[in-house]
User: Fold this.
Amino acid sequence: MTQTNELTNNLSHYPELAAKQHHWQHDFRSDALKGKTILVTGAGDGIGSASAKTYASFGANVILLGRTRSKLETVFDWIETHTNTASVIVPCDLENLDSETVENLADSIAENFGQLDGLVHNASRLGPKVPIAHYPADEWQKVMQTNVNAVFMLNKGLFELLDKSANACVIHTSSSVGREARAYWGAYAASKFALEGLNQLFADETETAGNIQVYSVNPGGTRTAMRKEAYPLEDPSTLPTPEDHMELYLALMCTADQVSGDVVTFTTGQQLDARTWLQRTS
Ligand SMILES: NC(=O)c1ccc[n+]([C@@H]2O[C@H](COP(=O)([O-])OP(=O)(O)OC[C@H]3O[C@@H](n4cnc5c(N)ncnc54)[C@H](OP(=O)(O)O)[C@@H]3O)[C@@H](O)[C@H]2O)c1
Assistant:
C-alpha cells in the first residue's frame, strides 16, 4: 500500500496522472482531500474512473457507483492497492433508480461516513444519433432517466448529507451539445440542457448558505468509450485523456487552504469547459 505524504508530486502509483502533473498550475497537498467522502457516478470507466482514482490518490474516501460490477471492482482494487483510503462499491443502474434505493444509499453513507463532501454526476447514456422524427421514444426515456432524473433524485436524496459538510462540491458533467444543440444528438443534447438547468437551480438555492458549491463541467472531446461510440472513425490519440482533466476536477473539489500556486477561484453555478481549462495550462 502506498503511503500518502506531504509532497504533492508523489503520484508514481498513477503514471497516467503523474505525466500530466508538471503542467499543473495548482499545487495540491497530497492529503488535500483527506477525510472527505466523494461519490462518483459512472466510476467504472473513462472520466469517472480517472476522477475516482485521482480523488483517492489525494486522500478522499470514494463511493464508486456504476452499472458494471466488474469495472467498479477493478477501480476498487486499484484504490485498495495504491491508497490508504476506504472506497465502497455501489452497483446501480441509474436507469432503474428509485426513491427507495436513494434512501438506502443515503442511510448507508450516513452510517459509514456521516456526511458527503463531493458528488460527481458523471454517468451518462449517449442514446442513438438520429433525427427527432426517427428518435425511438423508449430510448428517449432511458436517456432522460439516466442523465437527468437520476441526477435530480441523487441531489434531492443526498442533500442533507451534502449540507452537513463544511465545504461540499457537486459537479454536473455536461457536454458541448448541452450548451448549443446540434442535429441528431437527440435526447442526449436535451438531457444535458436539462442538467445545465439543474445546475443553475441547485446553485441558486444553495448560494446563500454557502457550504455547497455547484458546477457544470463540459469535458469536451475526451478519449473514452463514449467518445468512440459517438465518433467511431476519429483517431483517439488526437484527444485529451481523462487524466488531462484532473487538475480541474481536483481544483473544484479542494478548498483554498489545501492548494497553492496559481490558484483559480470558482463561483457556484459556474459553467466550465475542460478543454479551455487545458489550453490555459498547456
Ligand atoms: N468523452 C467525451 O468526449 C465526452 C464529451 C462531453 C461530455 N462527456 C460526458 O462525460 C461523462 C463521462 O463520460 P465518458 O466519456 O467518461 O464515458 P464512458 O467512458 O463511457 O463512461 C461512462 C460511465 O457511465 C456509466 N453509466 C452509463 N449508464 C449508466 C447507468 N444507467 N447507470 C450507471 N452507470 C452508467 C458507464 O457504465 P458502464 O461502464 O457499465 O457502461 C461508464 O462507467 C458523461 O456524462 C458524458 O456525457 C464526455
Q: What stands out?
A: The chain has a mean pLDDT of 95.
